[in-house]
What does this fold into?
Amino acid sequence: MIRALWTASTGMQSQKVNMDVIANNLANVNSSGFKKSRADFQDILYQTNRAAGTGVDGGEVPTGVQVGLGSRVAAVQKIFTTGDFQQTENELDLAIEGPGFFAVTLPDGNEAYTRSGSLKKDSTGRLVTSDGYPVVPEIVIPEGATSISIGSGGTVDVLLDGENTSTQVGTMELVRFGNPAGLSSLGRNLYAETPTTGAPLAGTPGEEGFGTLSQGFLEGSNVNIMEEMVNMIAGQRAYEVNSKAIKTADEMLQMTSGLVR
It folds into this structure.
């Protein structure tokens, strides 16, 4: 009976983590480039009272007796499906149509990766993220630029004040990974490379394996509110059922302790 108490408690713990994941997805429904997460579950240890195939009176037991001891969260996986595109008409907003990430340089010199293309100019004209991290390779918009044009292949052209023809100032690059689900979330819509992602491969937008860029658009979150609400209800009911199992086991223990010879 004590085993049932602990087994049901692991189910409640698993659903608690599941609800945390769902809550984070819903909290970021309006975060540009956000990718939803999904909790994956697995059963844990089994107590074997009799193994299958055990010989009994010249025969053998066909199934055996195993009692499970609960569940646990095996992984919380990022789902990198493409979110909906939102037109902003801002010339520094970029959306990636297809695979790829923007690479940025962190203050410690390491690189991080993001799907959020909400770029700005800093005091020196560099293209940076909302937190001031410059994109890789560095793109500098010269003073006096009256318009900025970023092509689907990543070429950055500017029209300078007093000139009739545009000038190319650089080319945006994208980075992709063999296993993007292995990326480590850093917050601020940033991801970091891990040993399971494979080495980052940089390339030009539109080349084989890379998406193209759309200027004046942002990729929204890929969170489906209806799906998350259904998952929330299912998780709540699973939590409720496990709590009911604990209550039932406790009542059975109470009956046992109340037995009188």
About this structure: The helical segments are 2-27, 225-257. Residues 2-80+226-257 form one domain. The two ends are 20 Å apart (CA to CA). The longest strand covers residues 71-78.
